[in-house]
Amino acid sequence: MKSVIYQPPYMNWASGALRGAPLICKTTHLGDLPSVFANDIAWRQSDPRQPVYRVEMFESPSGEGYLYTGVTHLHPGLIGDEYFMTRGHFHARREQGEIYFGLCGEGLLLLQDEQGKARLEQVSTGSVHIIPGFTAHRLINTGSGVLSALAVWPSLAGHDYAALAQGFALRVVEQGGQVQAKEVQNG
What we know:
Elements: E1 10-11, E2 18-19, E3 23-29, H1 40-45, E4 51-58, E5 67-74, E6 78-79, E7 82-83, E8 98-104, E9 107-113, E10 118-123, E11 128-131, E12 135-141, E13 147-154, E14 170-175, E15 178-183
Antiparallel strand pairs: 1-2, 3-4, 4-5, 5-13, 6-7, 8-11, 8-13, 9-10, 9-12, 14-15
């Protein structure tokens, strides 16, 4: 009996580049992120075609028991004093968790539960982030280079952006050359 050895897809751990299988790629530009940044005037004055982040993921079946695997490449930059970030989301199926692995760059993972309690985790090369169900999440690039993170999540999890229409409870800004977290004052 002759064994068949399958060559699985591949990811370059240093850069996060995926290859060896069909990919789905999507770039999110500043113009795609209305109401995400606190300084709406600075956002409106920016180039709406400027890329903020790119997601590459392996094509995968969706359904019970299947996982998606993808890499987010988040560019450095500021809108006003606020760092570039991903849109952020809860999962449509709230009970579904996710895992992030820091590949390169420097940044933060903003996590927030359904009651609005938020916390930040440092993202860097080799960091592992276990995002429990019922937790919204957003990547923030606080460095000078691209922040790349590998993510693995259930294909049925879905995304719920509408639940965060009022934003997250924390904003991450640069003040005096330092990274600062500011609580959002509602009302």
